[in-house]
Design a protein that fits this description.
Layout: H1 2-19, H2 60-72, H3 74-94, E1 100-114, E2 118-135, H4 140-206, H5 212-246, H6 277-280, H7 282-303, E3 308-319, E4 328-338, H8 346-412, H9 419-453, H10 457-465
Antiparallel strand pairs: 1-2, 2-3, 3-4
Length: 474
């Protein structure tokens, strides 16, 4: 035991000397997000990100559809499975922080027949343990683990991004679908009114009060409206299919849609500051986490060029008879110090590769930040101008309807032919259809704004609908 004790003291001294080495850590990148504007063009206070944005729309139908999609959408289930894979990889990356221990047991039975002595045989048994452990001298194991944890967190942010996207897409399809239903109803009313006009003109024609040209012109208006209905109906059906698939259902499933009017949205919500997007947007957070993960990978690659120290120990017990199993034993303890001498530049190339990956992820992160800011600015500008456009269309509609009334009165009194009536009728009906489309566009711009702002509701929704969504340290 004296020799073993001396060996143990020597090994301990070597280990303590090497452990004093400084491990590699990532270098901090100052201003990774780049230059950010102080405010948005239409800054109006700090937003409330604690509740789902679609609740502000005030539609129980929309709330139900989005809730179903967040629970059943297949894309979200794919993203959730990827998150589980990432968590398992993080656990694997952290396993080397602990000693590896395995046990073994063996038995051997042999017999032989000797003519003069009969049957001769022997039995041997062995039982033992083996353990190994690498001392993380330069932080390689820690760096690999931290890189895996950051990658896992980025995958979790990807899942949040998918939730944000699915919610916005469901709302967008729902608004478009509702708009098509209203357009079909409007076209049917227009067709009915145009048929009434046609009957009146045919009556005047039979009394020789108007020419056949007036009849043909009105028939053209009737057939034009009638021809539009199948196209809008096809759009409605295709949107129904898309919405059903977003809910994880077959395309022609019954969705129980009963709302009869487009939602009325209020004034622009508070949008906060551009810097808020770094925390509120999950896609931006994911890009930042992947940047941090690549920095840890550089630290791991640098540490991999230096010597590594592996400790191994084993204990084995054995005997020729079971009752004497623990009478004999064998114990060994070893330390292996290995250092790369020549590898053709492989480890150095790996350091260069991971550093280049940091540069790549840095620009990806900055691009994600700029894109997020741009999307908010685009949505703000689009909604503001769209409101102005709708106000202008309302004014045009008022003038067009008054013009139609005047044209009809002049036509009835015989002061003009049917062309002014026809012109005003077509203008009014086109404006009616256009107003529905523009109201739809306004609501879709608001959805795009909510989507571009992100929000804390995403993480809250994950914790309430998925098991164990907390970030695990493997």
């Amino acid at each position: 035991m004296t020799v073993f004790f001396r060996y143990y003291l020597l090994l301990t001294g070597i280990i303590l000397g090497l452990v004093a080495c400084s491990p590699f850590t990532p270098r901090e990148i100052s201003g990774a997000a780049g230059s950010l504007p102080e405010t948005f063009a239409l800054y109006n206070g700090s937003p409330d990100m604690s509740t789902p944005w679609w609740e502000s729309v005030g539609s129980a139908e929309l709330n139900r559809l989005i809730g179903d999609a967040l629970a059943e959408n297949f894309t979200l289930k794919e993203a959730w499975a990827r998150l589980q894979q990432s968590r398992a990889l993080a656990v694997q990356a952290g396993a080397d922080r602990f000693p590896y221990l395995e046990g073994f047991a063996a038995t051997d039975l042999s017999q032989r027949r000797i003519p003069s002595a009969g049957v001769d045989g022997s039995e041997t048994y062995a039982l033992g343990l083996f353990t190994s452990y690498e001392i993380d001298l330069w932080g390689r194991i820690r760096s690999q683990r931290e890189a895996a944890l950051e990658t896992m967190a980025a995958t979790g942010a990807d899942f949040q991004t998918a939730r944000m996207t699915i919610a916005a897409e469901v709302a967008d399809r729902w608004v478009q679908l509702l708009s098509r239903r209203l357009q079909i109803q409007l076209l049917e009313r227009q067709l009915e009114n145009n048929l009434i006009f046609l009957d009146l003109i045919e009556l005047r024609f039979r009394k020789a009060m108007v020419s056949a040209l007036d009849v043909y012109q009105q028939k053209q208006v009737v057939e034009n409206v009638r021809a539009r209905i199948p196209l809008v109906e096809a759009q409605r059906q295709l949107l129904h299919h898309e919405l059903a698939v977003l809910l994880g259902r077959p395309p022609r499933s019954q969705l129980k849609l009963s709302q009869t009017a487009l939602p009325v949205i209020g004034l622009l919500p508070a949008v906060g500051l551009p810097a808020d997007l770094l925390a509120n947007r999950p896609d931006v957070r994911a890009a930042g986490m992947r940047l941090t993960a690549s920095q840890w990978q550089v630290a791991a690659a640098r540490a991999n060029r230096l010597p590594s120290l592996q400790l191994t120990a084993g204990a084995q017990y054995g005997a020729s008879a079971m009752d004497a199993l623990f009478d004999t034993w064998l114990l060994n303890l070893a330390a292996d110090l290995t250092a790369p001498l020549f590898d053709g530049g492989r480890r150095t190339a790996e350091v260069d590769r991971t550093r280049a990956q940091v540069d790549e992820n840095l620009w990806i992160y900055r691009q994600a930040v700029l894109t997020a800011i741009k999307e908010v600015e685009d949505a703000l500008e689009s909604e503001t101008r769209q409101r102005e456009h709708i106000e202008g269309l309302d004014a045009v509609m008022m003038a067009a309807r008054k013009g139609l009334e005047e044209a009809i009165q002049r036509y009835r009194r015989g002061l003009s032919d049917y062309l002014p009536v026809l012109t005003q009728l077509i203008a009014v009906q086109d404006l009616e259809r256009d107003l529905i489309e523009q109201q739809e566009t306004l609501i879709r711009y608001r959805i795009a704004l909510y989507r571009s702002l992100g929000g804390a509701w995403i993480e809250d929704g994950i914790r309430s609908t998925e098991p164990d969504q907390s970030k695990k340290r493997g």
